[in-house]
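Sample entry (130 residues):
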Amino acid sequence: MTRRYCLTLDLKDDPKLIAEYKRYHEKIWPEISQSIRDSGIEDLEIYLLGTRMVMVIEVNEHFSFDAKARADQHNPKVQEWENLMWKFQQPLPQASPGEKWLLMEKSSIWQVDLTLLRCRAIAVDKADTV
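Predicted structure, serialized as tokens:
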């Protein structure tokens, strides 16, 4: 069973730095990709609007934020990548010292049953063709 988490972080408000950050993410270092997979992250996407980034991860049952943090601390290549990325990133105002990506709170108020919506859309489409 997979779980999904959303995290957020800001980039520095500098178009040149943002462009450089994007270039680095066009070709992630293989050691970084491997550390992500090894931690139990099965899918990872980062979205950007202005300087605000949102990372969506889907993880398997073996994933743990604590275990990922411990593994990253002992991986020199991950530390090198994180130090390089900090050139482009800045903490959110509510971050504790040393904290980067913050876990976002899930709002269940807006959850929608997509299965039901799809069924209704199919029914409407069929009614239009009759």
